[in-house]
Amino acid sequence: MQKETIGWIVCGGAAALLLAILLLVASATSSLPSGMTSWSAATTKLSSGEMMGHDGEYVLSDDVAMMNSAATSRMIGIVPPEMPPTAGATAAEADQKIIRTGFLSLTVESVADVSPKIIALATANGGYVQNTSVNEDLDGRHSGDVVIRVPSAKFDATVTAIKAFATVVNVETTSGQDVTEQYSDLEAQLRNAQAQEAQYLEILKKATTVEETLNVQQYLSGVRYQVESLQGQIKYVSNATSYSTITVSLSEKPGLRAPTKGFDIVSTIKEAAQALVAVVQNLGIALVWLVIVGGGIVVPVVLVAWGIVRIVRKTRNKKK
User: Fold this and answer.
1) How far apart are alpha carbons 128 and 130 in whole angstroms?
2) What is the mean pLDDT of the chain?
């Protein structure tokens, strides 16, 4: 009987102690700040792109989701989710963007006459000269290259007009590269980057501490670099599609013609004498090399051969 009474007392004491511990834990939890009790919720919301403000509310969720620069994220210590990819219009949905190029190899009566005509033609069609060069061969014939850029709408007409200057069209090639989808993708990326930049500027206005300001400025700097890079690529593609490049290689047809340079007998004699001196000098150098190098190789070989012959003769004489 006494043992049962003691057992009930022990069980009752243990139950009372457990109840006291539970009440103490509940009291301690209710006394914590609201920011501490909502740590799990805050962590969950931050992982989905939200940020806790100074008053305990979750704000700027879209702003944090925008922060998709991995390099800047590592510097700030936040790795935000990436923005979903934005595709540009397909080639069928957008205006065609085609880079056209042409090459002509022409034989003409006079390169000096045709080259300025090609330049004038490019200017008249709203284009410009990118490069030009003219060379003269030893026989007095000229050759050269002219590279022009004209509006794409006048590409075919310009090629036809240039061929009219030739006596023979040796080579004619034209090509076109469709960059419509590439151009549309660049435009879509630019719109996305500019939207991010605008939202970062709004975030910057809401920053209340130096740390927040510096963090947003780092993200803003990365987006600004992206915007400028995309604008440069779009400008390049737009220029390449707006103007077509035509390269013209010019050469004169062979034929008998009077030399264009004057004949100077004195200069010719001097050049011939100089060539003779160079030939004699080279022969002397070759002879010196032959005597020294050849002698150093031939003499030992001859001596060895002579010794072998003497030995063979002596051996034969003894046998006889």
Assistant:
1) 6
2) 75
